[in-house]
Each structure stands twice: as C-alpha cells, then as structure tokens.
Prior knowledge:
heterodimer; A: mainly alpha; elongated; B: alpha+beta; Jelly Rolls; 3 domains; 13-stranded mixed sheet; three-stranded mixed sheet; 9 helices; 18 strands
Amino acid sequence: MERSEGMTEIDPAALPDDAESTSENLAREEELQALMSAIESLPERCRQVVTLRKIYGLSQKEVAAQLCISEHTVEAQAAIGLRKCIDFFRRHGYGRHFRA
Amino acid sequence: MNSTPEPSDEIQRAASEWIVRLDRGLTGTEQDDYSQWLARDPRHREAISYMRWGWEELDRLAGLEASQLSEPDPDLFAPKRAGRARGKIVWLAPLAIALAAAAAVAVGLYIKHAPSAARQSVLAVKTAEPDTTAYERRLLDDGSVAELNRGTAISVEFTPAERHVKLVHGEANFTVAKNPARPFVVEASGVSVQAVGTVFNVRAENGPIEVLVSEGTVKVGSSSGGTAAESYYIKAGQRARVSVVSGGIHVEIANVTPDKVDEGLAWRTRTLDFDDAPLSEIVASFNAHNTTKLVIGDPALKTIRLSVTFRSDNVEGFLRLMDSDFDMRAERRGDHEIVLLKK
C-alpha cells in the first residue's frame, strides 16, 4: 500500500466503523494463524530460536543463554527458521499483498 | 550470459543469513561484505527484500501471549503441546495485541534534527521567530506523546496501517504507545526510523543522522526508498551513523558502552552534564541547543575545566552559575549572542 503524500492527520471519528474493523480483524486473525502455523512447522531447535527471537523479542545472546547453545548456533538456526517460514508462506499462499 | 549463474537456493540461504546478521547488527567488515554481496547480483537485493519481509512479518506475533507468562517459553508453538487448544490462541491473538496497544508501554524516542547546511539558509528565513514556540507537549491520537522543543515542526500522518511522523526541523521526544501491528515511523532528512517497542535516540546535525539505541531494535532505511530499499537493524547498545547517498543509505554501525548510551540519552531530558570538561566543550554543547549563542570572550577561559549540570534551555540559569561560582560575567551582544568574560 502506498502512503499518500497528501495525507494529513486522521480524525478519529473518520476511522473505519465497527463492521469494517470486524472484517479487518478476521483477516488479521487468519494471517496471525498462518504465521503461528509457520512457526509450528519448524524443527524443534529452529522453532525455539524463532519463538524466543520473534515472539519474546530476545536478543541472540539472550536466546543462547536460555537454550544453552552458542550465539553462533542461534544465528544459524534463526536463518534456517526464516528460510523455512518463507517456504511455508509460499506453499500456503501467504503473500506480501497482506501488508504494506 | 553469465558464466556460472549462482543457484537460487544459494541466494536464499545467503539472504536469510544476512537478514539475521543485520538484525543483530553488522560488524564493520560484515558491513563491507554485505554491500559487496548486494552489488554483485540484482537478485541478491530482491532476495533480501523478500527475506526481510518474512522476518518482519513474524514480528506481528510479537508480544503474543508473552504478557501472560512470566518466563519466555521457547515451546509456545510446539506442535503437539498438551493443554493448548489451537482455537484458543486464535482468539487470544488480537486481544493480546490490543492489550499491548492499550497499555501504551512507554517507549521513548528522541529525535534531534537540525537542517543540513544546504537547507539551513532557506529554513532560517522560515523559522525567523526563534522563541515563538515554547516547549510543547502534544498528545497524539494513538496515545503517544510528542514533546517538542522550541521552534520544532512536525507533521503527523496517521493511517490505520502506520503512524508516520515527519520531523520537519527541530528536536522532539516521543513517548510511543506500543503497537506492533501499527508501526511508529519518524522521518528526518530522508531517513526513516521505525520504532517497534524500543528506546532510541536520533540526532541530525550537519552530516549523517545519528541513531542510538538503548533498548530493543530499530529499523533504519531511506524514507524515499521503494520496497527493495535496503534497511538496517540497529540493536540495543549500538550507534549508527546514517547518511543518504545516491540509490540508498550508507550506514556505519558501532557498539557503544552503556555509559555512552546514557550520555547520548541525556539529551532526552535536555540536561547537560559535564564532569571536569573544558568550558569550550560546554559552550559548544550549549550552543547546539539554543538560538542564543555563547561566545568565550577571554582566551584564558577556554581551558578552564568545570563540573556542571544544567538544563540546555536554561540560559539565564547557566549565566548565574558562571557568575556566582566561576568568576565570570556575561555581556549581551545583540539579541542572540552572549559573551563570557573574566570578572
């Protein structure tokens, strides 16, 4: 989605009404579900690393400490996890069109 | 035809590794390697862009259920986990994000943006009334707070998808209501800085913009870039110098000590703190914050060393302190210049 140059402050009253936000919420739920499924599909170590990095926002160092593995392993597993998630997205038609 | 086209699997692998490294912050050598890798094949940039999208997409789950558990649970998404009904999590997801938004977790975002030398003359005309806008605290629609120093101009462009603030000129401190689903982006000097639950500091004097991160991660990119524009992740404890170059941005990342981070964030409270610093340094810092400029009138004063703490906008207080404790007197010269002399 392009951000319009001429866009200015939004009047809260002009925001989408409840009906629209409900359908938006449903679409978002499906997307979040797809993201969770992608993480679920990962091999164990990968899944743990991605979960701690992305859901809990831990740094590589923190993940390494929690899982008792080296930072190098965390980094390698995160990269593998990312590739596998991307593959999952491709297989399940989860595309970039969902978001700006 | 290229002699040996690189297999696409190999590109995907390298791109995923770069994304993860970018997220933790690149070393100087890696920075060079990365630039070279990007330049080697147009498909590399494309792969980075796709991988970055995927990596960021996973951030949409950030905070999910986390607030309900005291310890991070690596097996939150274990497939055969007993006792967790999948249907349940679907309903929890939007709720968790909504709660995170409502809690308005205080996220400080400090931006200082002085116009570049090239634009200064033009802007100086437009902002010729230096003291008209005093310090202002503005509540934004999403619950975030923008604190503006005098003479600061921002434009707020909130859409349902993104909270976009343009720092036109001046200096602003943002307390951002946390909402991973609706990024908070500040644009200054052609550079965009995105906060997703982070505390960081951005400063733009003449030359590169400086981004200092004290908590979490920020994403820095060119604000004019399209989807393929490269961006960099700056992590806690890192400082990045960002400049706009043709075709993108140039970023230098360095690790900084906690002391340096604190020093950088002292700007946030606009308190200047000096420990045994030469007066010339103190005056330079002071002048960087004010339209009224101090000049050291007596060369003998330049090298004297002081330990002082004062608010950057408190000109009169600073002068009183110099007068009472350091045997100096102040002489006004014109509207915006004050000369410091020995008594």
